[in-house]
């Protein structure tokens, strides 16, 4: 007959959105089944379902697993705190100035390229406007549907808008400043001055 973990244990695992049940198999060996409920489904995703030689080994394994969850949680909280501190100290003018060019590349089966000129620098964001582009001479590929392009700030497209800056602390502990994308499939970043590959389908 299946038995639940003691109240304290069950509460600890529930803190991480997990459900853990203890039972014995047909041979009387203890096992442990850890699952995560799936959003919008009645099915639970199995994290592990192990059999142990005795109850002590089962308890030791569960405690070690739980300790790992707490370490991971603590690391995430520390990273979040560092990111928050880094963003509070962010000064946009340390990274951008008026006249800089921002590049946006996106697309699935083709590579779309857009250039933007920085028109203003705010405390933690930049004000930009899309500008034109020009084809690099002799850069067309043999299929006629790809070439290299450069920005052309003699032409503007649309209206000015704001791009927010953000600092992220990566695994190496170093802060990296990047532009928050208005849409997930966009990739806004500071242009490095090199021609950009662009492709399309007829």
List keywords for this structure.
202 residues, alpha+beta, 2 domains, seven-stranded antiparallel sheet, 2 helices, 11 strands, 21% helix, 43% strand
Please sum up the structure shown.
The protein is an alpha+beta fold. It has helices at residues 7-14, 55-88; strands at 3-4, 19-24, 30-37, 44-51, 101-106, 112-121, 125-135, 146-169, 175-179, 188-190, 196-199.
Account of the 3D structure:
The protein is built from two helices and eleven strands; from the N terminus they run βαβββαβββββββ. It has 202 residues and is an alpha+beta fold. It has two domains: 3-88, no CATH class; 92-199, no CATH class. It is elongated and about 80 Å long. The mean pLDDT is 89.
Mean pLDDT: 89
Helix content: 10-25%
Strand % is 35-45%
Question: How many domain units?
Answer: 2
Rg: 27 Å
Order of helices and strands: EHEEEHEEEEEEE
Structural class of the helices, strands and pairings? alpha+beta
Distance between the termini: 66 Å
The major pleated sheet works out as: 7 strands, antiparallel
Count, helices: 2
Low-confidence stretches: none
Shape descriptor: elongated
Number of strands: 11
Outline the fold blueprint:
Elements: E1 3-4, H1 7-14, E2 19-24, E3 30-37, E4 44-51, H2 55-88, E5 101-106, E6 112-121, E7 125-135, E8 146-169, E9 175-179, E10 188-190, E11 196-199
Antiparallel strand pairs: 1-2, 2-3, 3-4, 5-6, 5-10, 6-7, 7-8, 8-9, 8-11
């Amino acid at each position: 007959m299946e038995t639940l973990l003691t109240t304290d244990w069950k509460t600890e695992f529930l803190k991480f959105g997990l459900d853990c049940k203890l039972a014995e198999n047909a041979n009387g060996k203890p096992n442990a089944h850890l699952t995560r409920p799936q959003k919008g489904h009645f099915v639970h995703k199995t994290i592990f379902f192990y059999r142990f030689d005795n109850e002590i080994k089962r308890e030791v394994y569960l405690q070690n697993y739980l300790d790992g969850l707490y370490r991971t949680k603590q690391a995430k909280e520390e990273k979040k705190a560092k990111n928050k501190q880094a963003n509070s100290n962010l000064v946009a003018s340390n990274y951008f100035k008026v006249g800089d060019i921002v590049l946006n590349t996106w697309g699935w089966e083709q590579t779309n390229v857009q250039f933007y000129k920085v028109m203003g620098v705010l405390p933690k964001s930049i004000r930009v406007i899309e500008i034109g582009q020009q084809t690099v001479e002799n850069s067309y590929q043999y299929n006629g549907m790809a070439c290299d392009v450069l920005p052309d700030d003699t032409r503007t497209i649309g209206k000015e808008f704001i791009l927010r800056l953000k600092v992220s602390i990566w695994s190496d502990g170093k802060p990296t400043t990047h532009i928050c994308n208005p849409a997930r499939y966009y990739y806004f970043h500071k242009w490095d001055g090199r021609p950009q590959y662009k492709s399309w389908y007829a």
